[in-house]
Amino acid sequence: MTTTLQIFRRQSPVEVLGPGQRAVLWVQGCPFACPGCIVPESWDARGGETVTIEELAHWILAQPNIEGITLSGGEPMMQANALSQLIDTLHQQRDLGVMCYTGYRLETLQQQGSDAQRQLLQRIDLLVDGQYRQEEHDNLLWRGSRNQRLWLLTSRDRAAVAQQLAQGDSSAGLSFVSATTGEVFFTGVPPSAGFRQQFESQMQQRGIRIRV
């Protein structure tokens, strides 16, 4: 049984990657390497941090006032079994919603995915599918490019998503955090292509290091 996850980063609370306030996990490892990806540091499956499921569950459950968790990356479906275990551990103590990003199409996972990937799908309420395409970048709610789709796999977030879309299918925005090390973190889906490169250039001119 898998007892650890390889993660790139974790952050909470986050209000720009799914409905309400959420704890977000960026997993490590991705087979797609999409041009223009804002977190290429998460591609190498050998990078990141190895964390036990128990430690991550404890951290998530300690976060106050969150509606759910969001799984991003990297590619969550590469660690499907461990993520299913994490979700089951959380649900034993708290009713948290689950949102997930994947570069795979939903139909591919349903028809050709592994048993572990299909098991993870059964635990997801809200899915964003499809690889990021820089040439199709658009200002969309929780998605980076027009080919990516927003799937309500359960009824849990139906009202919240409808309310968001009623205000317009546009980016939920970005959040910025200044670290004591002098670095600046940003989280979210940029509304314009090439945002990271432009922002890094501007901040570096001011002597500020950028992390995502």
Strand content: 25-35%
Q: What sort of overall outline do the alpha carbons produce when their principal axes are compared?
A: globular
**Secondary-structure element series:** EEEHEHEHHEEEEHEEHE
What is the topology, as strand order, of the major beta sheet?
Answer: 3-1-2-4-5-6-9
Detail the poorly predicted runs: none
Structural class: alpha/beta
User: How many distinct beta strands?
Assistant: 12
Characterize the largest beta sheet: strand count, sense, and whether it forms a barrel: 7 strands, mixed
Separation, N- and C-terminal Cα atoms: 31 Å
Helix content: 25-40%
Radius of gyration: 16 Å
**Helical stretch count?**
6
Task: List descriptors.
212 residues, 25% helix, globular
Q: Can you describe what's shown?
A:
The chain is α/β, with parallel strands linked by helices and 212 residues long. It is 25% helix and 29% strand. The chain contains 6 helices and 12 strands. Helix 1 packs across helix 2 and helix 2 (80-91) runs parallel beside helix 4. It is globular and about 45 Å long. 36% of the residues are buried. The model has no long low-confidence stretch (mean pLDDT 91).
